[in-house]
Amino acid sequence: MIPAVVYAIPAFVLLVAVEALSYRFLPDDEERGYETRDTVTSMSMGAGSQVVGLPWKAVAILAYAGLYTLAPWQLSPASAWTWVLLFFADDLAYYVFHRAHHRIRVLWASHVVHHSSVRFNLSTALRQSWTPMTTLPFWLPLALLGVPPWMILLQQSISLVYQFFLHTERVDKLWRPVEFLFNTPSHHRVHHGSNNAYLDRNYGGILIVWDRLLGTFEPEGERAVYGLTKNIDTYNPLRVAFHEYAATWRDVRSATRWRDRAGHLFGPPGWAPGTDR
């Protein structure tokens, strides 16, 4: 089964070109805009993620299908309530997945790819991980709820398409009720900021309500500084994809205690022996 998001790729590429042209004809000195090498890297990461992701989807479908057959009931796609449940369950699963990938270093090693650009534009949305296997556990409960596997994959694609449009500086804050309920470019700029006030905030996918309820919401105030707290300064897709895995392995190998090795793997990014973070 080809993920629905694949069919949106031509539109993504076209919109990246349109946004890049908008900076040429309507420049903004406060916005970073595009840089050719950065954009090529982001699009290379996106292409690579699709190559890796297609066979991995087969594994995910088998896992979802196995649990779906074990579910105490199977929900009907013909019922509107199944789609409502799926929308909220998928969005909550994304929040948990996203938060875990920021707070557990071995998961962050996969997700850090998406935050490695010092620019924030529609091409940044395409800068995706080449190690998608870390995502699977977070959506397994939806299959156990009785949601058909194809519906889970479809809703994941809908969420990803929505999130593509969050990666822009060209859209200011939206109507207040929209900003209150939904993830918006303003909220997502905060998420991509390396400012101290913005770290580990605004994990939402389509909705921002989980962040509001669970204490991880931060409104946009000071201008975001994009990238990592320690930028990697490379446009090499292989280094972008695997640099944090290599750094994690170096720390694990140099540790002398099993407790410290576990800390380097399962502690938050930046953890070191003797620190609380």
From TrEMBL:
It is a multi-pass membrane protein. The chain crosses the membrane at residues 6-26, 47-68, 80-97, 136-154. Its EC number is 1.-.-.-. InterPro entries: Fatty_acid_hydroxylase (IPR006694), Sterol_desaturase/TMEM195 (IPR051689). Keywords: Lipid metabolism, Membrane, Oxidoreductase, Transmembrane, Transmembrane helix. It holds the Pfam family FA_hydroxylase. This is C-5 sterol desaturase. One of its GO terms (biological process) is lipid biosynthetic process. Its main location: membrane. It comes from Streptomyces parvulus. It is found in: Endomembrane system. GO terms for molecular function: glyceryl-ether monooxygenase activity; iron ion binding. Residues 83-216 form the Fatty acid hydroxylase domain. One of its GO terms (cellular component) is membrane.
